Amino acid sequence: MKKLLFLLAGVVVLWSCGSSDKGELVGVQDRPYFEDIDLKGMVMINQGNFSMGSGALNATYGNPQQPRTMQVGSYFMDETEITNNEYRQFVNWVIDSIARRMLGENGMDNFLIEEDEYGEPIDPPILNKKEKIKWNNQETREALEDLYLAEKDRFYRRRTIDPAKLNYEYYWIDYQEAARKEAATTVKDEHKGTMFANRPKGLNNRSSLIKREVVNVYPDTLCWVHDYTYSMNEDFTRQYFTSPAYDNYPVVGVSWVQAKAFCVWRSNYLNQYLESIDYTQMNDFRLPTEAEWEFAARGGISEMSYPWGGPYVRNPNGCFLANYEPLKGAYDDDGGVKTLMVGHYAPNDYGLYDMAGNVSEWCIDTYDESTYTIANALSPYYNYNATDDDPAAMKRKVIRGGSWKDQKYFIQVQTRTYEFQDTSKSYIGFRCVQPYLGRVKGDNLKTATNVR
Questions:
Q1: Which CATH fold would you assign to the domain 37-83+219-452?
Q2: Structural contact between residues 163 and 177, judged by C-beta atoms closer than 8 angstroms
Q3: pTM for the full model?
Q4: In the chain, which residues fall in CATH 3.90.1580.10?
Q5: CA-CA distance, 285 to 265, in Å (whole number)?
Q6: What would the pLDDT profile of 279-296 be if each residue is shown by its tens digit?
């Protein structure tokens, strides 16, 4: 017995020597580093509630829609719409990735990583982004020939990358479906009078909740022509996305589906870098909810129709405050005929530019006339599930803010309309949000009142 007690005492001594918590609850140590960071080109919008839809009129009947108080959390938002040059970074990344995959599959082993650090095979192999592509090398040119337009389709024999080949493959988890499946299997035990849930089949098979998407990422440059018949917009079709002159103009011709893919790429691009420096991952970028968009557009000024606060579209000097169509057919009265460089007009009180006019902006929500009634007031987001009777309903996505081709009703912060998610227009762009990790800026782990 004494021998056993001696051994136990030795274990206690050894354990206490190797631990610094003295038996106290201190949490897991050596976690990834985290503190507030400022994201380039984004502004912080602190949490708040507001009267969503206040001041709105129905354009057809003139009836005011019922506003409702909604709550949003804190989030970062792009200070301008995504520009041509920013979106081109995404396109070029896709081109680079496809080229590396093709080169690796053509026997150039340096472009694919087929084993992990322990020598275990990686299937499928991942791309080696550190290896430089020698685009003008003869062997490289031959291996990448299928990435370019066929000779018969080339204009003046220019070797041009085929936009139809620029497909981005990504995966996402459908948490909405997971929640629906779990809720659908919750039943009542009649004998015990309690509620319990059998684990849904869909949750046992987690792979059913992982969705694969393949999206062509190149903007529809022909949107400038097909949006306006009998109109000379061929110059914009040829140059708007390709010329450096338009680098800082808002990207257009991007569908809701493409904008969503951009957000996924941007999230992975940032988080892979943060992981490489042992920094905690940030929340994913995404399109703003309709409520987040309107809350941000109001700039902290309630009950007003425009981001600058007042009921007028000109300042005291008579100058227009946004890029829209002031009078029927008089597009240039505000200084712009079509899109203008982002940030051309003054920002609202949150530091956000072009929340009225220039280009309309995609929101993540599905459009429904009764959203204000049926959406939850806490972080409202409406995601309609299609039915056999109305399969197209879920494809109607909210657009906000109005554009260069709209009259002033549509550039009001409360005005709602929609386009179908797979359409691309010369007057629709987008900007991203990233939900904040925490409550408000500065309220992080180092300043929290419960840190011991």
A1: paralog of FGE (formylglycine-generating enzyme) (3.90.1580)
A2: no
A3: 0.88
A4: 37-83+219-452
A5: 9
A6: 888 999 999 999 999 999
